[in-house]
Write a structure and sequence with these properties.
heterodimer, A: 81 residues, Non-ribosomal Peptide Synthetase Peptidyl Carrier Protein, Chain A, 60% helix, B: 415 residues, Peroxisomal Thiolase, Chain A, domain 1, 2 domains, 10-stranded mixed sheet, two-stranded antiparallel ribbon, 13 helices, 33% helix
């Protein structure tokens, strides 16, 4: 149940920040290629995740977060630690 | 400089405190309707000035192709993009088919730029530290970004820049656009300005200068140019855009032509940070050189849309400047102030007021100066007090002066 909440929160942030429809935010969706984000959007998006989940995402980690799924897994992983 | 390229106005767009399109704006001016009220955009209760003329019912995303882009834009840019979209549509340039987009430019400025963004981000910095600053802070803040974004929205790849001269900004964007077209570097330019500075730093800053009216108990009477009771300007916000192009280009594509942009003059007071030259010499020079460029005689001028801010000094100096230029004829020219109703739109003022001149020539109506109950004895011209007037106007001037001593004048002429 808690997992689903994290996922939902991630998806809501993406919908809000990138102005896309919820249906587009699939697990496989890539931020730049599929969701129309540019380099500034991705910086802002990571910042929004940090803010929402109270975590620090170093730049070297942020570079790897290219799909919705990788973000969810990454944040779950952080939450478990 | 001489050029045989004549420049005409073919499109208009406006978001103002009295209406969010050109027709409702013009109807309100003619009706003498004020857009002033208590400030609603933020809690102004601690401020000496608690009144302004705010834009109402504006949809921030209305001008953008992709609504997401509105989130990445300061309010000043949102207003600019919406007004530019109107002007481009009015000029029938929204469909790029058959247009040479490399020959269409954009010149849109803002007196201050993204002040609301700067405030918001500075608060985030203080509360959460530098790591939480938005990657959009700088692109939202800079005062040329509206010009850049309007170019992107429409694919216009011609000359693109932003003149910034405080309250003369958009008049000079239009004037320098005129110059670029005459020089041959573009055939069409979307020109104007935008401002959104009704925020704590904007209102507080102007209040500290004692530049704005403190008539908090009666906001709609606060802007009263040339009246004895005036005590400063009323802050406004909004955007004004015109499409200007060569007469030849307009004719070739069968565009509707409002009038000619026949001349533009500019000068500096070289006198003071914010106070005008007490003799009005700089303002007079701008008017005289604009008239010379337009090659019109004084007796052809039927209307002057004054800078007319409702400041104690400014109104007297502009009156003196008009007298310097027009001499004996000064009292025979109708002069009015749009700011009596919409307040001072700072960087957008020159453009929305140039639009008022275009509408005057088009409709044969001169809008009034409202709240002119008891004229200052030093202000003794025909300011079209309180009631609109029917009059055929063939040549109209639009004056705009900015902090820093920037003076400019545009000449609009029936074609």
């Amino acid at each position: 149940m808690a997992d689903k909440t994290l996922e939902e929160r991630v998806r809501e942030i993406i919908v809000e920040q990138l102005g896309v429809n919820a249906e587009q935010v699939t697990t496989e969706a890539r931020f730049i290629e599929d969701l129309g984000a540019d380099s500034l959007d991705t910086v802002e998006l990571v910042m929004a995740f940090e803010e929402e989940f109270g975590v620090e995402v170093p730049d070297e980690d942020a570079e790897k977060l290219q799909t919705v799924g990788t973000v969810i897994e990454y944040l779950k992983d952080k939450a478990d630690k | 400089m001489s050029s045989d390229r004549r420049v005409v106005v073919t499109g208009l767009g406006a978001i103002t405190p009295v209406g969010n399109d050109v027709n409702s704006y013009w109807d309100a001016l003619v009706a003498g309707r004020s857009g002033a009220g208590p400030i609603t955009g933020f809690d102004a209760s601690a401020f000496d000035c608690r009144i302004a003329a705010e834009v109402k019912g504006f949809e921030p995303a209305s001008g953008f192709k992709n609504p997401k882009d509105a989130r990445r834009a300061d309010r000043y840019t949102q207003l600019a993009v919406a007004a530019a979209k109107q002007a481009v549509a009015d000029a029938a340039l929204a469909d790029p088919t058959g247009l040479d987009l490399d020959r269409i430019g954009v010149m849109i400025g803002s007196g201050i730029g993204g002040l609301i963004t700067l405030e918001t981000q500075h608060s985030i910095y203080l509360e959460k530290g530098p790591g939480r600053l938005s990657p959009f802070l700088i692109p939202m803040l800079i005062s040329n970004i509206a010009s850049g974004i309007v170019g992107m929205e429409h694919g216009f790849r011609g000359p693109n820049l932003a003149v910034v001269t405080a309250c003369a900004t958009s008049a000079q964007c239009i004037g320098e656009g005129w110059r670029i077209i005459r020089d041959g570097d573009a055939d069409v330019i979307v020109a104007g300005g935008s401002e959104a500075a009704i925020c704590p730093m904007g209102i507080g800053g102007f209040a500290a200068m004692r530049a704005v009216s403190f008539r908090n108990d009666d906001p709609q009477a606060a802007s009263r140019p040339w009246d004895k009771g005036r005590d400063g300007f009323l802050m406004g916000e909004g955007a004004g855009m015109v499409v200007i192009e060569t007469l030849e280009h307009a004719k070739k594509r069968g565009a509707k032509i409002y009038c000619e942009l026949a001349g533009y003059g500019l000068s500096a007071d070289a006198y003071h940070l914010s106070a005008p030259d007490p003799e009005g010499a700089g303002a007079a020079k701008a008017m005289a050189s604009a008239l010379k460029r337009a090659a019109v005689n004084l007796d052809e001028v039927g209307y002057i849309n004054a800078h007319g801010t409702s400041t104690p000094l400014g109104d007297i100096c502009e009156t003196l400047a008009i007298k310097r230029v027009f001499g004996e004829r000064a009292k025979g020219v109708a002069v009015s102030s749009s700011k009596s109703m919409i307040g001072h739109l700072l960087g957008a003022a020159g453009a929305v007021e140039a639009i008022a001149c275009v509408k005057t020539i088009e409709t044969g109506v001169i809008h009034p100066t409202i709240n002119l109950a008891d004229p200052d004895p030093q202000c003794d011209l025909d300011y079209v007090p309180n009631v609109a007037r029917q009059a055929r106007v063939d040549v109209a001037l639009s004056n705009s002066f900015g902090f820093g001593g920037h003076n400019s004048c545009l000449v609009l002429k029936r074609i």
